Amino acid sequence: MSLTTKLRRIALHQQGLLRNESFGRGKGAVLRAIEQIGYVQIDTISVVERAHHHVLGSRVANYHATMLEQLVRERKLFEYWFHAAAWLPMKDYRFSLPRMRQLNGERHWFKGSDRKLMREILARIAVDGPLRTRDFEDARAGNSGWWDWKPAKQALEQLFMQGELMVSAREGFQKVYDLPERVLPGWVDTSTPSLDEFAAHLIDTSLRAHGFVTLVSVTYLRKGQALRDAVKQQLQSRIDAGLLIQQTLGNNCSVYIDPERLETRAPRSVAQVRILSPFDNLVIQRQRCREVFAFDYQIECYVPEPQRQFGYFCLPLLYRDRLVGRIDCKAHRAQARLEVKSIHIERPVGEDFAELMSAALKSFASFNGCEQIDFTDARHADLETLLKSPASA
């Protein structure tokens, strides 16, 4: 078995994507999944079910959005920033503090933040309790557009990013802000980690989530040469202690892995197709996708339409232990209809693929609250016929 094949299966096993119910079922499984993969990214796009629900639905068979909401209310998860907006295990709260400290006094996204308004907002929330953006009036005229946030929203978001407010819940998709002391459980460690502790946390999180790391994967979208140097030093120390070994892929990419894990027989590949989110933890790092899965993936909703190759919101297709293609679809929820605009299969697949794809589509349609599946592209007529076959139901 090649190194890349073994790494693929290890990663899929660690991600809970190689077998059904790797984390079990129910709310407890959702928490176990997030603790294992480190975070779940939050995204606003709702062409199909939003990314955070999609990622969890891919790992927990009976997942429902209320499970995530309950874990947030129970203070087992908190919302902050990993490499992007995310829900994270509450036990990892202290490792969000370096970024909060960095942003205290440094603007986040905005040209400027009204310090006086920020103080007034903190005072009001202290007295009135949790508040949303719409609880603050905007006296300006002619406001429109996503980035034309009213001053209160800018101030709330700045306070959130620098740790003076937390998101205690979401109502619909609206954040509810409160003071950290009213959100954090008493057992949470609030001491700021040293640079070495933070580097070790990032390595451990990535090892737990994927089974191996690269320097790029550990420091993904994180600024600062000091952190990069600390990660390098930590990796070398673990190599010296025999805890990790360094392997090189064909493209001269250095991979660090526990030698016992590498020597252990790789998890078996199983017959399945999974439709993944573009923001799934398995595929979000495009370089790792190319190096380990030989899959060049880009979400195209941010690409001008004339330059798109695969469609606005193409979702990666996992077949057994390979990423083999992508599917562009849209959930028309009011009509309970999942529209399949195109399917692109880019690698050889087995004779069982059509039937497995049919089962995956039916499951995905149900997950999106859709009862009907329609194909826009006539080239998929054979799959459409299979979907309508009672034998495959």
Can you describe this structure in just a few lines?
This protein is α+β, with helices and mostly antiparallel strands.
Q: Could you characterize the architecture of this molecule?
A:
This protein has a domain at 298-392: Aminopeptidase (3-Layer(aba) Sandwich). Strands 9-10-11-12-13 form a five-stranded mixed β-sheet, covered by helices on one side. The protein has a three-stranded antiparallel β-sheet with strand order 1-3-2. It has 15 helices and 13 strands. It has helices spanning 3-14, 26-37, 51-57, 65-73, 97-103, 115-128, 151-161, 180-183, 195-210, 215-218, 225-240, 259-263, 286-293, 353-367, 381-387, and strands at 40-41, 77-81, 85-89, 166-171, 174-178, 212-213, 245-248, 254-257, 273-275, 314-319, 322-332, 337-345, 372-375. The radius of gyration is 22 Å and the shape is globular.
Question: Main traits of this protein?
Answer:
393 residues; alpha+beta; Aminopeptidase; five-stranded mixed β-sheet; three-stranded antiparallel β-sheet; 15 helices
Write down the CATH topology of the domain at 298-392.
Aminopeptidase
CATH superfamily of the domain at 298-392: Gcn5-related N-acetyltransferase (GNAT)
Number of separate strands = 13
Average residue-wise pLDDT: 90
Contiguous helical run count = 15
Biggest pleated-sheet summary? 5 strands, mixed
Main sheet: which strands, in order across?
9-10-11-12-13
Name the beta content range.
Answer: 15-25%
Structural class: alpha+beta
Percent in helix: 25-40%
CATH class of the domain at 298-392: Alpha Beta
* Distance, first to last CA: 35 Å
Model regions low in confidence, pLDDT < 50 over at least 5 residues? 144-148
How large, in whole angstroms, is the Cα Rg? 22 Å
Could you say which overall geometry the principal axes of the C-alpha atoms support? Answer: globular
SSE string: HHEHHEEHHHEEHHEHHEEHEHEEEHEH
**In the CATH classification, which architecture of the domain at 298-392 applies?**
3-Layer(aba) Sandwich
